[in-house]
Specification:
The chain folds into 3 domains: about 140 residues, no CATH class; about 180 residues, no CATH class; about 170 residues, no CATH class. By secondary structure, it is an alpha+beta fold. It has a 9-stranded antiparallel beta sheet. Helix content is about 50%, strand content about 15%.
Length: about 525
């Protein structure tokens, strides 16, 4: 399974579900009476479906948000945007740390950014996620096994006689198949335990007048399939263990399941019976103990505001507004379908994904006043650049050649020297690239260098200012088309430092920007080694 599949699923599911959870929180508080607890539980079910199903439906409009910098077609637009934005943020953060001369923080953020680009960080995060899933599942298993073993050790006997007959009558009335019921001691409150073979644990200390209410409550949990809801909650928490909103939603949905169970218990009760049932809930709350979120068991115990809400709901007996409940069910279902619509069409993917060829190269964007159409014009400007950045030796040989697209290339050599100087002009006369060799450039091929981090913020700003000055000399106006120059790396070769900078264009219709390579000598003299604006266009 590719990490891209996990990445798409987790990003899309958590964004969509988190939005739904944030909407459900005020909705259940403000509209519980009008919607009813069953509708609210239905809303939580839809959230769980979005969290658990790695489904993706075709959405012809989703392609409009695909980032051109997300080159992997397996990463869908939403996840691609997140990846690009996080990478950009890491880049900005690394620049801040660099200017602050915080080398250790710079190294960490820069390494993370590189990892985002080459997918190593994504693979590492996928492994961390999987490890988290396994740990949470292990914790859930341990909690449930310990709870079940404790209940089994404290089990006294199954119910019998008249109480068994009453229980069977309740099951027949509620149209469910009877399940085993065991007296257990000690046990704070009754609970429905298990999933595939559920049973009811009943406190031995339960008052005879309250037992029927307690058993009816647990029977209604079975009727509502709350033991299966427990599995959904645990799966959501295990898979999305890193999202605190999922844990909050699991706790809230558990409360709402209890309230829904109360509705089913009291639907045919008169006011006196409701008062008696509310008293049972208050007594259960006094014990202040209930199975934890990770345990597959129901519990009647609630305290604080939740108990107040529960008792008020039981006593008010207010029927939900049917039209509002139906409207909520329809709209929320439509939203669920929309939450899965995250894939592009086949035609959109075939059109190409990621790093598209730009409309224009950055070099072509300049309105150069130089219209180089002849060999002597190309050589003349190359001579000016050569004398500034390389040599003014009168024995230098200039060789110019015109390309099929009317661009020009000029190579400069001096007999007896291994180094050289080359300039490439795009058809409008702009310098597309400038490259010179250097005696120390062997480090490029044989690896005779060390990574350097010794450059403070003041020195870095000096390099940037010098680079901008040279950019304006080579191509006037070019610095207005690019964003800030960022450091890609610094390497030491002997006493010199080689600094590689890059700047993206301000306008996305142009190509990937400008590359700039500077040699910083021991005396802080700067030499331009390479300048490029041609890009991928």
């Amino acid at each position: 399974m590719r990490s891209a599949f996990v990445y798409n699923f987790l990003i899309e599911a958590n964004i969509m579900a988190s939005i739904a959870i944030l909407l459900m929180i005020p909705l259940r508080k403000l509209f519980r009476k009008q919607l009813g607890n069953s509708a609210i539980c239905f809303g939580w079910l839809l959230v769980a479906i979005r969290l658990l199903c790695p489904l993706s439906l075709v959405n012809p409009l989703i392609h409009t948000i695909r980032s051109p910098f997300a080159a992997d077609a397996a990463i869908r637009p939403i996840a691609g945007q997140i990846k690009v934005r996080v990478s950009d943020a890491l880049g900005d953060l690394s620049n801040i740390f660099w200017r602050a001369d915080n080398q250790s923080a710079y190294e960490v953020t820069n390494r993370l950014q590189v990892g985002m680009e080459n997918a190593s960080a994504s693979i590492t995060l996928a492994k961390i996620w999987l490890a988290g899933v396994l740990l949470i599942i292990a914790w859930f298993l341990f909690s449930n096994i310990r709870f079940r073993m404790r209940l089994r050790a404290d089990r006294i006997e199954p119910i019998s006689g008249e109480l068994q007959d009453q229980f069977n009558a309740l099951c027949k009335q509620r149209r469910i198949r009877p399940v085993p019921v065991y007296f257990t001691d000690p046990l704070p409150s009754a609970c429905l335990v298990g999933v595939f073979r559920p049973y009811i644990a009943l406190p031995l200390s339960a008052a005879p007048q309250d037992v029927i209410h307690v058993l009816t409550h647990e029977i209604c949990h079975i009727r509502n399939r709350d033991h299966l809801w427990g599995i959904l909650r645990l799966l959501c928490c295990a898979i999305h263990w890193f999202n605190p909103l999922v844990w909050i939603a699991a706790s809230m949905s558990r409360t709402d399941s209890e309230l829904r169970c109360d509705d089913r218990v009291t639907e045919s009760m008169d006011q006196e019976e409701r008062k008696s049932y509310a008293g049972v809930l208050v007594l259960a709350a006094a014990r202040r103990n209930a199975p934890g979120l990770g345990v597959l068991a129901t519990g009647m115990t609630m305290t604080g505001k939740r108990l107040k809400t529960r008792v008020a709901t039981v006593m008010q007996n207010r029927k939900p507004l049917r039209w509002l409940t139906v409207t909520f069910a329809i709209l929320s279902s439509m939203c669920l379908i929309g939450a899965f619509a995250t894939s592009e069409t086949k035609e959109q993917l075939e059109m190409g994904v990621g790093w598209p060829i730009a409309e224009h190269t950055l070099a072509e964007a300049l309105n150069s006043e130089r219209h180089i159409t002849r060999q002597d014009e190309a050589i003349s400007y190359t001579r000016e650049l050569c004398e500034r950045y390389w040599t003014n030796d009168t024995e230098a040989v200039y060789t110019a050649g015109q390309n099929d697209d009317n661009s020009w290339s000029v190579l400069v050599n001096i007999e007896g020297k291994d180094s050289w100087f080359e300039v490439f002009f795009v058809p409008n006369g702009t310098v597309g690239s400038l490259v010179q060799s250097f005696q120390d450039d062997r480090w490029v091929t044989d690896g005779q260098y060390v990574e350097s981090q010794v450059l403070n913020a003041e020195e870095l700003n000096e390099v940037r200012a010098w680079a901008i000055e040279q950019i304006e000399f080579i191509n006037p106006g070019a610095s207005d088309l690019i964003r800030e120059l960022n450091i890609n790396y610094i390497r030491d070769v002997g006493d010199a430092k080689y600094i590689y900078l890059h700047a993206d264009p301000k306008d996305s219709k142009y190509d990937y920007g400008l590359n700039y390579f500077v040699r910083l000598g021991i005396d802080h003299t700067m030499t331009l080694m390479e300048y490029g604006m041609v890009g991928n266009g």
